[in-house]
Design goal:
CATH class: Alpha Beta
Radius of gyration: 17 Å
CATH architecture: Alpha-Beta Barrel
Pfam family, one: BtpA
Protein name: BtpA/SgcQ family protein
Distance between the termini: 15 Å
Oligomer: single chain
Number of strands: 11
Strand content: 15-25%
Helix content: 25-40%
InterPro entries: BtpA (IPR005137), RibuloseP-bd_barrel (IPR011060)
Shape: globular
Structural class: alpha/beta
Largest sheet: 8 strands, parallel, barrel
Number of domains: 1
Family: Belongs to the BtpA family.
Amino acid sequence: MTTWLSEVFDVPKPVIGMCHLPALPGDPGYDAAGGMDKVLAHARQEVAALQDGGIDGILISNEFSLPYLTTTEPITAVAMARVIGEIRSELRVPFGVNVLWDGVASIDLAVSTGASFVREVFTGVYASDFGLWNTDVGKAARHRARMGATGVRLLYNIVPEAAAYLAERSLAQLTRSTVFNGTPDGLCVSGLTAGAATDTSTLAVVKENAGAVPVFVNTGVRPDTVAESLEYADAAIVGTSLKRDGVFENEVDRARVAELMAVVRGLRA
């Protein structure tokens, strides 16, 4: 168990549930008729279902801002800050934020809302569904320092969804160099898309080469896979499998959260 994970979550192998926000102002799918009141009502319902189901932490993201930008418009983080500000008193577990796919905006949102961690793609250059995807981890790290936010933990997507790393290096080499050059607080290992299974052999390679940096299984965790995933990973981030019928577009189902967390508590015991 790594120190910061213990400090933030106070349980071994914490499980973080996703609060997927609907499309926000400026997004193609935004429901202007329902407006921000509809977004707020959705967020409140998701948070309640996750917490009542026994989740260890929550990660709030603009998951339905499809198609994503790699440098977001200001309105996205502003809208997310309003949502979190209005539901902040209802959050009983540690929470993080993710402004897809913009690391600096995610850090700003974390600072403004008191989030404990951020998940983003901070390193590498990729050919992706969103075009050529470049990053600047040095800029992001310095931005965090300027904001006085060194306590905001940065989780790096080491195998991003919907993208392929352009350099011809093995996953083991990539992990070691990311840890050395990027100084991440955590590494997230994903499948191809949200909800897609994360290969345990990939998890094993990242864990073997990550040193003391905690590894998060980032997609595809279900009651029948969580034991195998947490054999290698130090924590899990779960979204799709917690939703009604396990469908990405549906709302969080409290019963599915409780089912997963019952398995996790059994593993801890």
